[in-house]
Write a structure and sequence with these properties.
homodimer; alpha/beta; Lyase, Ornithine Decarboxylase, Chain A, domain 1; 2 domains; nine-stranded mixed beta sheet; six-stranded parallel beta sheet; 14 helices; globular
Amino acid sequence: MMPADSPASRRTFLAASGMAAAHVWVPTGANGYTPEEMRERVSTTGISKWELDTPALCVDLDALEANIATMQSRLAAKGLGARPHAKTHKSADIARKQLAAGALGICTSKVSEAEALMAAGIDRICMTTTNPSASKVRRAMALSRTSPHFIHAVDDEKNARDLADAARDAKLTANVVIDVAVGTRSGIPAGEGAVALAETISRLPQLRLRGLLSYDGGAQHITGFATRRTTALKNIEANAAVFEALKRKGLPTEIFSGGGTGTYNIQHEVPGFTDVQVGSYLFMDMQYLAIGNAEGGVVYDDFQRSLTVLATVLNNRFPGRLTTDAGAKALTLNVPRAGVVGEPGMDYNAGSDEFGVITYKQATKSYAIGDKLELVVPHCDPVVNLYDQIYGIRKDRVEVVWPITARGKSQ
Amino acid sequence: MMPADSPASRRTFLAASGMAAAHVWVPTGANGYTPEEMRERVSTTGISKWELDTPALCVDLDALEANIATMQSRLAAKGLGARPHAKTHKSADIARKQLAAGALGICTSKVSEAEALMAAGIDRICMTTTNPSASKVRRAMALSRTSPHFIHAVDDEKNARDLADAARDAKLTANVVIDVAVGTRSGIPAGEGAVALAETISRLPQLRLRGLLSYDGGAQHITGFATRRTTALKNIEANAAVFEALKRKGLPTEIFSGGGTGTYNIQHEVPGFTDVQVGSYLFMDMQYLAIGNAEGGVVYDDFQRSLTVLATVLNNRFPGRLTTDAGAKALTLNVPRAGVVGEPGMDYNAGSDEFGVITYKQATKSYAIGDKLELVVPHCDPVVNLYDQIYGIRKDRVEVVWPITARGKSQ
């Protein structure tokens, strides 16, 4: 039996029956949805987000689409491209939206992440981490075989030679960029060694050098725009010198990529910089909201907050306390604390594996067992990585359910 | 071509080819392995753990089996049963081992966890969290339909009546236990309200009251056995009074369950206690290792450390520092710090999403890019929940690959 015509009775019907709306978004087979994913789509599309079982990962589609458009146009206005990092969203569907908006390509941190996205049809992928083991060289080279656009990150001569050998065996020429360290975490230190590595790579006929990566993870979350700008520009000085040296030697520099959501409006000041590896701008989270904007505001509001986790109140019997069903397995980190939408007086502790504990002195209403709350996550990347799907919400209604294509792909 | 006969050449062959050992453990179709899981089994069974791509979640099978046997026999010696909590392992295979060793049943925190384990053949499941929404009542009652052994946790009269209605619609009698709070997190406060709830439930013909739960999450990690014992026994006093009141009123008390790895050797002092919801004893982690044992030792060594995450060195170029490929997405928490096996002088920081950063003054050797390290995880439950599979290792060789059956099932 189909639902009645009025929106209210249709909503009631859907809530009561758990059945699909009349117009269900039916995915094509191309993305390899499992039967469970298909059932989830059919049973939730069209319902109110407040009827979802919790914990549920939700993204507001209006805000997400606005963020993609805003980032693309602001970078373009400064002469830069976007090469969004999939480590944030791990979703082929969101990557497709970013590419459709004009992104140069998509970044991945891990080879398994690239495998999953490529299997779901995303082919312009640039790895930002090296693959130093023999097995991972094989896996990465298999991706070059699948797509001529795949780009390997290299920071070590032995690894470059291993990749060249694998490319020769695969009878192809593989794209590579050198990963030049900003700070001490990953990459070859900026300086003569980095230039020498680029020269070595340029002499290996199976590798095609495309340029360099210079990601400054440490600068992204610096509070206060002025300090963030000064630090980011100082940190990347030595990398800019490597870029200049490569250019002088006639080596390829068509890619000079790095930066992120925190420095997207700073990177154009780096001479030769080509594109920014933005990620969190899609969603925003408690960490990024707190870094402040370029106008001196304490809230970083260049992008809209689109990502939330829905939770249910399980216990309300102790004064000034609520227990929810969203703990560490739903939110990962507990620092900074998750935010409760509409309840600035609440402190949310996700320190337990299965439960969230809210303490408060003031709340806008009294909460019953079974009531739902919406949470802003502490840090988006590891939270998204916990969920099999994300509910795409428009005006509080589930419009689409996307699989987290590369969920758990940390290898 | 099959590998040669000698173990050494067979190992070399396997490492080089990524192919299967001659004797591959082939799972039956019953557990619903995906094609990807099947490939993982075939490609890794028989190889050295040091050849696994990283990050990889590993469990030492000798230690795991010893821990299961030790816990079972020590609880039995005190007249208690084990009702191990699957929130720790989320694995149908490990649950089967626990049941085979004599466990009374298996606990789950979330209904989706119970669904996944029951679909994989585990049927004696007791939920330890309530399901207050209409949708979750439906889902939980579907599990009662599948197995007459399924037990619902209830802490609220409305929820009890909703469950009774659902049981009537399903034409069955559902097992329930009342969840009585220890502390303020979940459950109905110990006292008259809890007794009244038990009486209400006992008058609902569709529900069969079995007893009560009293889990003291806060006591499990108290450092020092004496303090842990005193606190745990004091915290549960009011719950023990509820148990006595139910008994006096002739209400069912065949289940009086709670406790965990930290208090397994304390719970028998609670009059009427029946079984302990042990979880982490299987694996041990940095949190539990630090709580101290009953003999006054600073290391809690009642159980063997069996769980590790393998990681690969990605960067060794900065003095006193190493970068690995195991960050927050491989280890979740950063407090307490992960331990590096065999390198007590190393401090491991998993604060980055994709990278681990080791700082050290002393190391037993110098580490090259591509070298592997073994990590003891900060806290086992949320780490296991990140991985699709766990490698069962015996004498450093992969013997079995188990799916994490309920990975990500936090609803």
